[in-house]
Design goal:
Shape: globular
Strand content: 25-35%
Helix content: under 10%
Number of strands: 35
Number of domains: 2
Structural class: mainly beta
CATH class of the largest domain: Mainly Beta
CATH topology of the largest domain: UDP N-Acetylglucosamine Acyltransferase, domain 1
Low-confidence stretches: none
Radius of gyration: 20 Å
Largest sheet: 10 strands, mixed
CATH superfamily of the largest domain: Hexapeptide repeat proteins
Number of helices: 2
CATH architecture of the largest domain: 3 Solenoid
Length: about 300
């Protein structure tokens, strides 16, 4: 059963429809009874709306709505679908901040009730494990680490000291007056087997879908992995690197220290990003790029 985050009657936005929406969803993973948006630049992906029904969809005024989509959903036409999507949460008073939880103290670590922890793990004093966290076998979690929200950890994962996994990323827009419209973060973090994560690193949960760190990836100290990033198998991210929201890397890529990857950009399989590079466009498989902008 899909998790219910809120309950909002769509008749507040589209008067001729009368049902509730209960969750956010994206065009990548459409779901029934969800709140979604489509912008002009992603109109080629709007067919995903035919895979779900009874959603509230914020749609650009400048684009005609196909009849089959109009029949399945409540369409709210507006000038700025992403901004209106963010405004929806403000108007409805919807937040998704972590709640206080009952916990037990084990060897000085704070383990919330509901957390699922596998065999033969090591959790050092001062760590906090939230109630929606699942942890596999033979996992090491250093002192001061924080696992917040829906976080799924595989087997043989190493999480070093004072790292935070599951923190909110920054998903905001601006209204017509330039004031912030902040969207709550509803996704989680999935970390597969044999991943290593250095100290003082932050991995943000997904805005809607999950942030994903694939098997065998290594993330060095003091790095920031933002919301909805997907890091490929056996890819290395060296210290003080920033990967902004929805950026990604394929298999066995190497991202050198102090690099910056722009939101939505992809680093191909076995590509190499030089030290201090600023990546503002996709990097092809096997390519080597460096500099600002990286080329």
């Amino acid at each position: 059963m899909e998790k219910e985050f809120f309950r909002v009657d769509v008749s507040q936005y589209v008067s001729n429809r009368d049902y509730v929406v209960t969750r956010p969803a994206s065009l990548d993973h459409p779901k029934d009874h969800a709140v979604m948006f489509v912008t002009e630049c992603f109109m080629n992906r709007s067919g995903a709306l035919l895979q779900c029904q009874d959603c509230l969809v914020f749609w650009p005024k400048t684009v005609e709505v196909p009849a089959e989509i109009k029949a399945r959903h409540a369409l709210y036409l507006c000038d700025d679908p992403h901004g209106q999507y963010c405004r929806f949460y403000t108007e409805q008073g919807i937040t998704y901040l972590p709640k206080t939880e009952e916990f037990e103290i084990k060897n000085g670590a704070y383990i919330a009730k509901g957390a699922v922890i596998g065999r033969n793990g090591t959790i050092f004093p001062g760590a906090y494990i939230g109630g929606e966290v699942t942890i596999g076998d033979d996992v090491f979690i250093g002192s001061g680490a924080r696992l917040i929200g829906e976080v799924h950890i595989g087997n043989r994962v190493v999480i070093r000291e004072n790292t935070v996994i599951g923190a909110d990323g920054l998903s905001t827009d601006r209204d017509e007056n330039g004031e912030a419209l902040t969207m709550p973060q509803f996704g989680g973090v999935v970390i597969e087997d044999d991943v290593q994560i250095g100290a003082l690193t932050v991995i943000a949960r997904g805005a809607i879908d999950n942030t994903k760190i694939r098997r065998g990836a290594k993330i060095d100290n003091s790095s920031f992995i933002s919301h909805n990033v997907i890091l490929g198998e056996d890819t290395f991210v060296v210290g003080e690197t920033i990967m902004f929201g929805s950026s990604s890397a394929g298999k066995q890529a190497f991202i050198s220290g102090n690099s910056t990857i722009r939101d939505g950009k992809h680093i191909g399989d076995r590509a190499i990003v030089g030290m201090g590079a600023v990546v503002v466009k996709d990097v092809e498989d096997g390519a080597i790029v460096k500099g600002n902008p990286a080329r």
